[in-house]
Automatic annotation (TrEMBL):
<feature type="domain" description="NADP-dependent oxidoreductase">
    <location>
        <begin position="20"/>
        <end position="291"/>
    </location>
</feature>
<dbReference type="InterPro" id="IPR036812">
    <property type="entry name" value="NAD(P)_OxRdtase_dom_sf"/>
</dbReference>
<dbReference type="GO" id="GO:0016491">
    <property type="term" value="F:oxidoreductase activity"/>
</dbReference>
<feature type="active site" description="Proton donor">
    <location>
        <position position="53"/>
    </location>
</feature>
<dbReference type="InterPro" id="IPR018170">
    <property type="entry name" value="Aldo/ket_reductase_CS"/>
</dbReference>
<dbReference type="InterPro" id="IPR023210">
    <property type="entry name" value="NADP_OxRdtase_dom"/>
</dbReference>
<dbReference type="InterPro" id="IPR020471">
    <property type="entry name" value="AKR"/>
</dbReference>
<dbReference type="Pfam" id="PF00248">
    <property type="entry name" value="Aldo_ket_red"/>
</dbReference>
<protein>
    <recommendedName>
        <fullName>NADP-dependent oxidoreductase domain-containing protein</fullName>
    </recommendedName>
</protein>
<feature type="binding site">
    <location>
        <position position="115"/>
    </location>
    <ligand>
        <name>substrate</name>
    </ligand>
</feature>
<feature type="site" description="Lowers pKa of active site Tyr">
    <location>
        <position position="82"/>
    </location>
</feature>
Length: 320
């Protein structure tokens, strides 16, 4: 794994997926275009977005400009977007994806994810009791039409994924979940590896920027106190040992677990820094030291799912 270029894993359909991508949650339209261009020029080939990020249009424009300039070809990129809770309601998925494709200025996405397993109406005032099986049937249909080269889920639990797999339709290619040093998701990773599903980590660095998140109305969410992954003493010690930053240690740790990840940044220097993880390797002892953490705390409980029949984290809420 000692290479200066992005490595890939292989989806169950034979498609390569880059191990490192640019996340764009909280990246406003007026800054995300520059971030995408910086990332692609730095060697990133995976760009991750979602309808609810409200930045697909700007991302599509930036990518199209780079293609026209000859910097990159569309077929060399891996574009992921996600269907929000209102878009997975019955009959809504294909029209929603068509709109995302228009905004992204492409004929297909490389990966389309169900952002949540819970369907709602457009303003999220009403829960729609549609099962994950019915949701997955819609993803199967858009995959078979070629609108998405691969399909997957985000924030689904293992039982929900198994229900989708048991339909014997298009398999779940990717599961994107919160996963970081202090929430390692060992059981979920083992389940996905058993079923040949690639796991993508979000919040790989512990999401220090989550506290700045603003709702569309300008309000802020309340976040429970949580330890900072990048302040972990073992992470700091390994950063000093390898001459790397704590962020690079955390990303390299995730890479060596056989996972993919999408760290978010709009800072060009940090985008480059996050990419510079292919020129060193953590030893077996280094990995063991990091995997010895006793902390396991989910940061994103997605409280709006509470009470929905497909609430993925209902069991966790009962333990609180």
């Amino acid at each position: 794994m000692m290479s200066g270029t992005p490595h890939s894993l292989t989806l169950s359909n034979g498609t390569p997926i880059p191990t490192l991508g640019l996340g764009t949650w909280q990246s406003a339209p007026d800054v995300v275009g520059a971030a995408v261009k910086a990332a692609i020029k730095a060697g990133y080939r995976l760009i991750d977005t979602a309808t609810c990020y409200q930045n697909e249009e700007a991302i599509g424009t930036a990518i199209l400009e780079l293609i026209k300039e000859g910097v990159v070809k569309r077929e060399d990129l891996f574009i992921t977007t996600k269907a929000w809770t209102n878009e997975i309601a019955p009959g809504k998925l294909e029209p929603a994806l068509e709109e995302s494709l228009k905004r992204l200025k492409t004929d297909y996405v490389d990966l389309y994810l169900a952002h949540m397993p819970t369907a709602f109406n457009d303003d999220m005032t009403e829960k729609i009791a549609v099962s994950v099986e019915e949701i997955w049937k819609q993803f199967d249909a858009i995959h078979k039409k070629g609108l998405a080269k691969a399909v997957g889920v985000s924030n689904w639990n293992e039982k929900q994924i198994k229900k989708a797999l048991d339909l014997n339709l298009t398999p779940v290619h990717v599961s994107q979940v919160e996963l970081h040093l202090y929430f390692p998701q060992n059981e979920h990773v083992a389940f996905c590896k058993k079923h040949n599903i690639i796991v993508t980590s979000y919040a790989t660095l512990g999401s220090p920027g989550r506290v700045d998140f603003q709702l569309p109305n300008g309000g802020k969410l309340e976040w429970a106190p949580a330890p900072q992954d990048m302040e972990d003493q073992s992470v700091k010690d390994l950063a000093k040992k390898h001459g790397k930053t704590p962020a690079q240690i955390l990303l390299r740790h995730t890479l060596q677990r056989g996972l993919t990840m999408i760290p978010k940044s709009t800072n060009e220097a940090r985008i480059q820094e996050n990419h510079d993880i292919f020129d060193f390797q953590l030893t077996h002892d280094d990995m063991a030291k990091l995997q010895g953490t006793q902390v396991s705390q989910r940061l994103f409980l997605q409280d709006f799912m509470e009470g929905h029949p497909e609430d993925a984290f209902a069991d966790e809420r009962l333990k609180k």
